[in-house]
DNA sequence: GCGACAG
DNA sequence: ATCTTGTCGC
């Protein structure tokens, strides 16, 4: 298994400088989200986890992408990218903080990432364009979002057994689902990113949680980006 | 106007 | 996200 580490390239000249500019970019891209394709079936090809860690004191960011064989969940390849924070954390604008690092790490891969699983939301977003959808549109790849918190959305309690679901609601609109990945454990919040439908996004999430609440993809990416940050900061 | 708010 | 000890359990 091969691990590559790269430096994040300079931001594009047109990278949004403030919240207003960032929202304008979202409005220009949000119409390109594809949510009616079923997407790849679980257990086939590759599944890639993405996560990012920060040291806000030193203004350093580290992203990790970990490619798994979808059938065995064995690590196939991984990459990290380290650089300078691109945007402050603003709820609803997370993609502008995380994307430059994530894209740099993805570019360093030598294999097809397959389905990309993000730590956060897809179309469950105030303008239906969260991190997973943004990453999907920019790369053209199938993506889903699996978040640890319900953000601003409402939901009923899913059934207590693994596999239980409940609609995730923005007012009356269904934007995703709360999904119980382990018996009796707090649910995760799944939404469509790009080129995958919700039923398949849920199936993928269950396939990736044979043992823990969070998908193996995010668990491994989380461990790797933290290690990369420690190394870059040391 | 105020509070809440993925990571 | 990040700051943080001990502790219960497999």
UniProtKB/TrEMBL annotation:
Mg(2+) binds at residues 51, 119. GO terms for biological process: DNA repair. One of its GO terms (cellular component) is cytoplasm. It is found in: Cytoplasm. Its EC number is 3.1.21.7. Keywords: Cytoplasm, DNA damage, DNA repair, Endonuclease, Hydrolase, Magnesium, Metal-binding, Nuclease. It holds the Pfam family Endonuclease_5. It comes from the Bacteria. Its cofactor is Mg(2+). The record marks 89 as: Interaction with target DNA. This is Endonuclease V. It comes from Streptomyces spectabilis.
């Amino acid at each position: 298994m091969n691990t590559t580490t790269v430096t994040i390239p300079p931001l594009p000249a047109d990278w949004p400088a403030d919240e207003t500019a960032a929202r304008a970019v979202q409005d220009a891209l949000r119409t390109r989200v594809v949510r009616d394709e079923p997407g790849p079936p679980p257990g086939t090809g590759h599944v890639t986890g993405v996560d990012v860690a920060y040291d806000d004191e030193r203004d350093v960011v580290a992203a990790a992408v970990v490619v798994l064989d979808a059938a065995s969940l064995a690590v196939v390849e991984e990459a990290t990218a380290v650089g300078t924070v691109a945007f402050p954390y603003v709820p609803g604008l997370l993609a502008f903080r995380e994307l430059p690092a994530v894209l740099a790490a993805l570019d360093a891969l030598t294999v097809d990432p397959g389905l990309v699983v993000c730590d956060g939301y897809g179309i469950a977003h105030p303008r239906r364009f969260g991190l997973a959808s943004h990453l999907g549109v920019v790369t053209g790849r199938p993506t889903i979002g699996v978040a640890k918190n319900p953000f601003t959305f409402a939901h009923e309690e899913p059934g207590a057994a693994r596999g239980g679901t409940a609609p995730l609601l923005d007012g009356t609109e269904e934007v995703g689902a709360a999904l119980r990945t382990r018996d009796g454990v707090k649910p995760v919040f799944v939404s469509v990113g790009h080129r995958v439908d919700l039923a398949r996004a849920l199936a993928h999430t269950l396939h990736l949680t044979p043992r823990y609440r969070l998908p193996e993809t995010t668990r491994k990416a989380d461990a790797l980006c933290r290690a990369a940050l420690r190394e870059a900061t040391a």
